Amino acid sequence: MKKVRNAVLAVCAVCLCAVPVFALRGLLEKPLFFVNANGKIEKQGYWMINLGKYDVTLNRKFAGEEMKAIETSIDLFMTSSGYIQASGYSEKGKIECSALMMVKTPSGDRKIEVGEIDCLTDNGTKVKLTDSTTGDLVLDIEKNQMLIKKMQVRVYKFQADEYGENVLKEQTSNTDIPITAWAFSAASLKTALNLPANTTVIDTDPPAKKGKK
What is the pTM of this model? Predict the structure, then answer.
């Protein structure tokens, strides 16, 4: 019985940490600049940012039941494709929901898209948009509003699989890179962090093109 229990726990741990295959297949290139664990500015093209796990209350209607509020935990990932993936599990099985970002300013709150962000600082709590708007960043998971808990980057690159097909594979061995700030340009990140304009940026080798080798 103990071995079975341990096996179940291990499978659950893998399911919670793994990135869904459909999300990885649809990953698009979008240069991201961040300060890595060595204190250097790094540039990556294919990535996901693990934003953490959030306890939320969602309204759901299941077959044969009335609409009801359920409490669950949702994992959030921001992707280089420009959207936030939100999913978790309940006693009824897998739960998927919508997650938005809001910027709070003295003139009011409004929804923003990933592509509108110029840079994100202060552990993801402060945002500057491409139109120069600045304010507090808040996550909205179906009316559950909260601050970002963490930001950890997962890096992906094209590599040949056993069939010779170039596919995206994670480059960090499931060890997320903790970051406190990021931007879509080196200049924006340097400005936000008050770094010299000539600060070196580590640009890894460009990923291979999709297709057979």
Answer: 0.82
